[in-house]
Amino acid sequence: MLSWIEIDRARLKSNLAEFRKMIRPSTGLMVVVKANAYGHGLETAAAVIAEDADWLGVNCSDEATTLTRIGVTKPIAILGHTSFDQIEGVVRNGYRQVLYRLDVASVLSAAAAKYKTTAKVHLKIETGTNRQGIALAELEGFVTSVKRLPAIEIEGVYTHFANIEDTLDPAFARAQVERFLDALAILKRLGVNPPQVHASATAGALLYPDMEFTMVRVGIGAYGIWPSRETQLAARERGRQLSLAPVLTWKTRVAQVKSIQSGDYVGYGLTYQARRAMQVVVLPVGYYDGYDRELSNSGRALIHGQHVPVIGRVAMNMTMLDVTDTGADVDEEVVLLGRQGNAEIRAEELAERIGTIPYEVVSRINPLIPRRLNAG
Questions:
Q1: Secondary structure (DSSP) of 189-250
Q2: 260 - beta bridge partners?
Q3: Do 147 and 277 belong together in one domain?
Q4: Which residues pair with 345 in a beta bridge?
Q5: To which H or E segment does residue 4 belong?
């Protein structure tokens, strides 16, 4: 095995318990497991999450059917687009489909009639993010048309914040809430009162308890990663003392140990030249695996519980480390992300080094890499 991911079961359950303590007892907890559970392994992580969450959220029907296959019985909400050819499966399995297109509503209705069941949908309201959603000006006509269709139940209504992590100026988030409240008023006037109303993802749940409605959608926070440093600081300032712990550790082993001389180059492009005699190790991991090429000559890994630098360019399937000061043997364990001994490399660190966000760091880890569940 060239590299593998270890998922800490105890930490994952502890993170969910932290969010459960934070919200009202009556508020539902949806945990989002899209994008291979944010890189943590859909089957591995969701099996644990389903023990404690009220709902699970996915992006597509393929993810939903995977959850069903592994025995998840909690309600599953599909938060992304579903093509017409997959809608019968959505209805047959009782998944909740996001709805913002009338043609999709018609196909859902026909499938529900075919299977003599009800298609439950969650309306997505556009309040300012301008991705998928129903514009406020179109909502009344949209809902009126949906109500004419047989076998459809508007079970939920929701929106998504565009700038909730801007803790210095919450004006845009507040404006989105006002638009969402207007949408709820329109629905009420039309006689539609969905039991599931949700707006807040992780940052919203952390910072704005008044935006809970009847359910929150926790994503990145469930995996022990804060949406942003600003969110973490603001939560502490507001007395939201959550203890979140990363649950993912990415490991590999040393494939080769070699000695090089002063003046020798390492890797493609001759981007690193040794200034002394050095001991170098080769790792069987590269950008194909999700270890970003921007970590060339800037990243670091853990060996013997100590940080060692990446030298040379990260290649498709190989990365080199300078272990001159630590030493290393063939087949020794190396941590690319996570904790080893008293040292740690967090997703936030890698994100800063490559100029992105922690979400991307973990979700881009190659899904073919095995995920293992540890008792923790």
A1: HTT---SEEE---HHHHHH-GGG-TTEEEE-GGGGT--S-HHHHHHHHHTT--------EEE
A2: 278
A3: no
A4: 338
A5: strand 3-8
Spell out the long-range contacts of 105-109 with Cβ–Cβ below 8 A and sequence spacing 24 or more: 105/145, 105/146, 105/149, 105/152, 106/149, 108/152, 109/149, 109/150, 109/151, 109/152
Low-confidence ranges of the chain (pLDDT < 70): 376
Does 242 reside within a domain? no
- How does pLDDT run across 227-269, given as a tens digit for each residue? 988 888 888 888 888 899 999 999 999 999 999 999 999 999 9
Length of the chain equals 376
C-alpha to C-alpha distances, 158 to 154, 222, 243, 279, nearest whole angstrom: 11, 20, 28, 55
- Measured CA to CA, the distance from residue 340 to residue 334 in angstroms comes to 9
Three-class DSSP category at 155: strand
- Contact partners, residue 361, CB within 8 Å, separation at least 6: 39, 292, 337, 347, 350, 351, 354
Angle, nearest 10°, between helix axes 84-92 and 61-69?
Answer: 30
State the catalytic residues. 34, 268
Query: What is the CATH number for 266?
Result: 2.40.37.10
Q: Are strands 152-158 and 196-198 parallel, antiparallel or unpaired?
A: parallel
Are the beta carbons of 200 and 215 closer than 8 angstroms? Answer: no
Q: What is the pLDDT of residue 242?
A: 87
pTM value is: 0.95
Closest CA relative to residue 11, chosen from 34, 45, 59: 45
Q: What local confidence, expressed as pLDDT, does residue 75 receive?
A: 98
Answer for the pair 283, 324: CB distance below 8 angstroms, yes or no.
no
Bridging pattern class, strands 55-58 and 76-78:
parallel
Question: Kind of pairing, strands 96-99 and 119-124?
Answer: parallel
What is the domain range of residue 319?
A: 248-345
- Clarify whether residues 210 and 293 are in a common domain: no
- Flag whether 129 is in a domain: yes
Among positive and negative, which fits the CA dihedral 213, 219, 223, 225?
negative
The pLDDT value recorded for residue 239 is 81
How much is the pLDDT for 86? 98
